[in-house]
Amino acid sequence: MNSPVWTSLKYQAITLLPTACVLMYIDKTYVSSYLLGALVFILPNLYFVIYAFRYQGANASLWVIKSFNQGEYGKLVLSGLGFALVYRFNQALHIQSFFAGFACMIALQWFIAAKITAAIPCEPVEQALEH
Q: pLDDT at position 89, please?
């Protein structure tokens, strides 16, 4: 099975590139705002995924919890910082496109999570209790 990180990036690229090409015909400000909104979601999310899932297994359960919490805190800080930097330094920002890019990546992440979760094989509860 592919890494969830690469699967997520693949679907995000498949969604971003055609949308950006369509928006290019309307206005270049729309494209840059849309892509900035998507990046404000993607970069902190990548930090979270890489940081939170460093440890695995029952022996590392305390480290799993700590790294998950620190990854979530880092994601929130990076998201806030991303919003602040975009608002501060991008004078030609189209707010609706910016938030459309951010919201599109959130909805896409829900789809990706459902797809990845459905691909993970799990045995029925009855079989697990028999062992």
A: 93
